[in-house]
Structure prediction request, 227 residues.
Amino acid sequence: MTTLQKRILSAIVLAPIVVAAVWYGGVVFYGLMAAVFAISMYEWRGLSRIDGRMQYGLLLVGAVYMGVACLAAVWLRDHVQSGLYLLLYVMFAIWACDSGAYAAGKTFGGPKMAPKISPNKTWAGLIGGCLASAIVVTGLTAFCKDGPLGVIVPVSHTYFVHFIIGLVLAVIGQIGDLLISILKRRAGLKDTGNIIPGHGGLLDRIDALLLALIVFASIIYILEHMQ
Prediction:
């Protein structure tokens, strides 16, 4: 089985489970977040073994980073109007970005975006990921009429606004991806683990989502308190 086939099979199996847990909420969703935090921290330990003097500091940074991201997901899901849809919104945006970046990078190749950090990332992949994210969230908006952000941003019923939001989320996600890639590079690791066939570790799958959740939840919080 090729790597691409493994990636597709893993996505087909895991994506519905994750979406179902988010949709169901309650103890199922909290259990998912606890599992994500625990597995991510286990994998982060491998990334932290790059310098004995910095190891404990990096472990603390990882705990805060992963903890804040998981809390951002819980806050969006349970404490914001239409929070369920907002959380799914950012999740689908990042998933679309990851898939679009992978497809565009493999198809078009071209100049490397950050060869010293992540040799496989190309500018074509970045553009493909951004466009995929923008198109998917714009499509979700069309499907959901005004879209979930209508409860926060009055003008969000316009497709242009959602298109831009999709682009921004994709860029933020790519930055989050590169942050983990820097640590992997310094630790001499290709992947953070092997728990997900075709993807590597859990952190390899959610690296972009972590930062996107933190930034997205922060913006929603600010917008809520500006009203």
